[in-house]
Amino acid sequence: MSMPIVDEAANVLADPTAYTDEKRLHDALARARATAPVSLVEAPSYKPFWAITKHADVMAVERANRAFTNWPRPVLMTAQSDEMQAAVGIRTLIHMDDPQHRIVRAIAADWFSPKAMRAMGVRIDELAKRYVDKMRDAGGECDFVQEVAVNFPLYVIMSLLGVPEADFPLMLKLTQELVGSDDDELKRSTPSDETMNSLLEMFAYFKTLTDARREHPTDDLASTIANATLDGAPLSDIDTMSYYAIIATAGHDTTSSSISGGLRALAEHPEQLDLLRGNLDLIPQATEEIIRWVTPVKAFMRTAAEDSVVNGVTIPAGDSLLLSYVSANRDEDAFVDPFRFDIEREPNKHVAFGFGVHFCLGAGLARMEIGKFLAELLPRLKSIELAGEPELTATTFVGGLKHLPIRYSLT
């Protein structure tokens, strides 16, 4: 196959609209895996990067966290956005490498431990019931994303942080603007700097919260972050704000995308829905398959710290690599029949949470939220079908459905 076709295939990774058309995206990525699994992408508006599309290669790069660093380019953004983020100085866990990453990650780790998750379980059960009741009260038809899926995980993560419920709508708006900056419907309407404005507004909000928690600590994650110390000193303002920002966004949009994408998959595969309703013990396996199927975090970036070789291709020191989780999770060499939605799939070694030292801190919480929502919904769900065309978010980082019109019958 000629080089331009190969280049064009991997170029979808730098096109936010490609993620709104799953057939186009997956066809291109299947071609990239087959013809140029490590392919240089030089797309307008973006600094060049190497697209890593095979599951084994993504895992190899994730394991080699000294040879491939998160800093300075952990996420695919336009060159302009790269420069703007650098100017703000944002430094979240995904921007950090060891040893700093390990130390800063430990600040919040206890809040996501199995013991903490058990304690959160009661609250998540209550919220799952609240939102399934809301579906029932909607009278058998709703936009599941806008009315349920974006709110349920938002309430969970904001409760954990300690944000007052009156401020949840503001947090929803800001997190959607941050991860939806490539989507014409979700982004801010101001011409330029829209992502930065959302980020700065979120930073200002959390600066006020930090000051309050330092003066009067409470039993929430915001207090833990606000009062954490490194080498005897509090975290810097930018590191504190960055910590809140990553938990607020990563703990919300990813899970809402998984829940809505999972419900769509079950509605479109009624035999799988019947299987799951008939055996709720399959919920943990179904949860993993939903996460693989949706892959809400589309990709992360790494930078080669030294000249390296990936799948026979030399990556010069200083070059960027894009780890395509979406592609890896449909890799024919890693999964039997990867384009089949199979709630009994085992093993299911998806990379939707990453791998290695940067494995998602909130993976246990996300799994619990999806599982508990299904456990509440399925025994009460008599029927479900799509009531319109599902719509996906334009993105190159985090995303999923933004509209899912459904018609259903609930007890």
Characterization of the model:
It is a single chain. This protein is of the alpha+beta class. 49% of the residues lie in helices and 12% in strands. The chain has 17 helices and 14 strands. It has helices spanning 3-11, 22-35, 55-63, 79-88, 100-109, 114-137, 144-149, 151-161, 168-179, 194-215, 221-226, 237-250, 253-268, 270-278, 283-294, 325-328, 363-377; strands at residues 38-41, 49-52, 68-69, 141-143, 229-230, 233-234, 299-304, 308-310, 313-315, 320-324, 381-386, 391-392, 401-403, 405-410. The strands form five sheets. Strands 1-2-10-7-3 form a five-stranded mixed β-sheet, sandwiched between helices. Strands 4-14-11 form a three-stranded antiparallel β-sheet. Helix 1 (3-11) crosses helix 2 (22-35). The longest helix has 24 residues, at 114-137. It is globular and about 60 Å long. It starts with a helix and ends with a strand. Mean pLDDT is 93; it is low at 1-6.
